[in-house]
Write a structure and sequence with these properties.
Chain lengths: ~375, ~60
């Protein structure tokens, strides 16, 4: 029999989560938040809010949720990691933990490339939480489950027998008295009716959101960013109103997922579009958010302007230059900044050109005035 | 027969969507260091309200 590392689970972070099982995976997620909430005795909404805050901490929550899901047993009693990566359990404990840490860091770095988010507070909160939970009296000490690879199987079996004997002793303690049932009392009130799914209302809400976007962008000609904001507000208000007024029916979770798409896009665009770019009076700034634009710099007065900054987010931008730029600084995230070949005889454009592109196509073209 | 409980998930999502939409609408006039804390505060407020609503139960006539 070969040596195997102990099964890595969430007890690594919190000893009280040892052997956690996701009993109900019928919701939107994997059931991890609900399982954690039941184990530590809090409302699942609280755990979900904490997860969202961790997700906003540089994407830390995404990596943790993914690993937490694959390392815990689902309703079928198996861990997803055992079917996805069967050799994982043969790795040493240190290698398993290293894989978790490295992949979480990679996820955070990848997300940070697209959307810079503050991560230090989330990481610090997680470390403090794990430290406090490990120090909690009554929690299983971490050292107990850290098995040295050099230990032999006889020692492992002996430790397992000791734990079983300890559990049997605790099971032999006097049981709590059974509750008294009065058969002559009035029946307890029936729990609330299970609400029926409201697919038609959900589809009408999605249709109304689409209509708001179409009217604003096509008929009224407002910018795509304002249209997106209006669509998000309309969707949120309709979902909120329906949830408050129609308690007998419940919007399907799939409809709510669809509403989260413009919500996430609004949050991302808001972080990208906020604030002035360069407060300097000697600089000219252009910001293109979710649109198409041609920026003509051929008529700019270089005696009064030292720098030009162009910020493009989810946009297609063409920049017309009077000549080759000597000081060009580009920052691109999931973006394509292309420079057409400079003409040899063109007069240089004597400004500092800063291009900050995110999920955009930016093309620099020389057009002599 | 008691009434069904509130759909706290939809309420929290609706509040978040309204808040995010408003922030997106006024983002160009907001200072960039404040946007993410505002979005986080919206999420926390919406989640906290959902948590409070999930704790509020109608009286069941317990005897």
């Amino acid at each position: 029999m070969g040596r195997m590392a102990p099964e890595l689970d969430l007890a690594w972070l919190d000893p009280s989560l040892r052997g956690l099982t996701r009993r109900d995976a019928s919701g939107l997620g994997s059931g991890l938040c609900r399982a954690i909430a039941e184990r530590i005795g809090v409302d699942p909404v609280l755990v979900r809010v904490a997860l969202i805050v961790l997700i906003l901490s540089g994407g830390l929550g995404i990596g943790l949720y993914a690993w937490g899901t694959v390392l815990t047993r689902g309703p079928s009693g198996t861990r997803p990691i055992d079917s996805v990566l069967p050799t994982f359990t043969t790795w040493s404990s240190l290698a398993q933990k290293a894989a978790v840490v490295v992949t979480v860091i990679l996820v955070m770095v990848s997300i940070g490339q697209v959307m810079p988010l503050p991560w230090a507070a989330g990481v610090l909160a997680l470390v403090v939480w794990a430290w406090l939970r490990r120090r909690k009296p009554g929690a299983v000490p971490q050292a107990e489950d850290a098995v040295d690879d050099t230990e032999d199987d006889e020692l492992l079996i002996g430790r397992w027998r000791t734990r079983m004997a300890s559990a049997a002793r605790s099971a032999a303690e006097p049981a709590r008295p059974l509750p008294t049932v009065d058969l002559y009392s009035e029946p307890a009130p029936v729990e609330g009716r299970k609400p029926r799914p409201a697919w038609l209302a959900g589809l009408l809400i999605l249709g109304a959101m689409g209509a708001v976007g179409a009217v604003l962008s096509l008929a009224l000609g407002v910018t795509p960013m304002v249209s997106l904001a209006a669509v998000t507000i309309a969707g949120g208000a309709l979902v909120l109103g329906y949830a408050l007024l129609a308690r007998g029916r419940r919007l399907p979770r799939l409809i709510l997922v669809a509403v989260t798409v413009p919500l996430a896009m609004s949050g991302w665009l808001a972080t990208q579009a906020a604030g002035p770019l360069l407060p300097s009076p000697d600089a000219v700034t252009y910001s293109v958010i979710a649109g198409e634009k041609t920026i003509d710099l051929t008529t700019i007065d270089t005696t009064k302007v030292d720098a030009v900054e162009i910020k493009a987010v989810a946009s297609d931008v063409e920049v017309l230059l009077p000549g080759p730029v000597e000081d060009l600084r580009t920052t691109s995230r999931l973006a394509d900044v292309t420079v057409d070949a400079w003409p040899d005889d063109a007069k240089p454009f004597d400004v500092t050109l800063i291009v900050d592109a995110t999920a955009s196509n930016v093309r620099l073209v020389v057009r002599e005035p | 027969m008691s009434r069904p409980s509130l759909d706290v998930g939809a309420i929290a999502l609706g509040l978040s969507a309204v808040g995010f939409g408003v922030v997106c609408l006024f983002a160009p006039s907001l200072s960039s260091p404040f946007v993410q804390p505002i979005l986080a505060a919206i999420l926390i407020a919406a989640g906290g309200l959902g948590l409070l609503l999930s704790r509020v139960r109608p009286p069941k006539g317990k005897r």
